[in-house]
């Protein structure tokens, strides 16, 4: 139906008068036209089997080598967690049994439990924490053990820390206090990522102290019985990590000759 619009001087179509063309009945549909069936997405969820769950959580050796140190364990010939020494040699050359080994095991266990928030936050996982000999070697050290079975870059770390005082190993009253052991252990945890004592190592220790102070890990009014020989590490301990990068870098450069390793 055509309607003449005088104002617009044009012809327009009135859509309201249009009638919808009825569809032909099904019987009138030609036979040569193929019937189109729509494919609906099935709402059924796939069944989950226990075998599928195991395959999803299983990790190959190549994948585990790139994930982290927490998946690695030490071989059987290495010391286990919280291992202790049974004897030491005195100045006269006599073998003397070490007493109070239960206290040493409990101290190692408490240290391991207390530093787990730091280990998880900074991804500094170690395979074992055991006692270092009271009269031989350094106060603590970190042993990096290559595990070629898992891959070329796979390592496990074994931390040994001294609990007894060298002058009187069998006197439990002279065992190192918690603040001293935490400071030594923080130093060894930083060695898991940096094996040297350069600026990255220094800043990582500062971040570890700052987080440990935030979670109230240090006991109050306890003296450091084995202070570090590095000035920047003493400053970090005294201020519990509340030291800026500029101050530490300046102190590192001024004392660089004394700790180049």
UniProtKB/TrEMBL annotation:
Coiled-coil positions: none
Amino acid composition bias (Basic residues), ranges on this chain: 36-51
Residue ranges of domain WLM in the record: 106-216
Region (Disordered): 1-62
One Pfam short name: WLM
Superkingdom of origin organism: Eukaryota
Biased composition (Basic and acidic residues): 52-62
InterPro entries tied to this protein: WLM_dom
Name listed for the protein in its UniProt record: WLM domain-containing protein
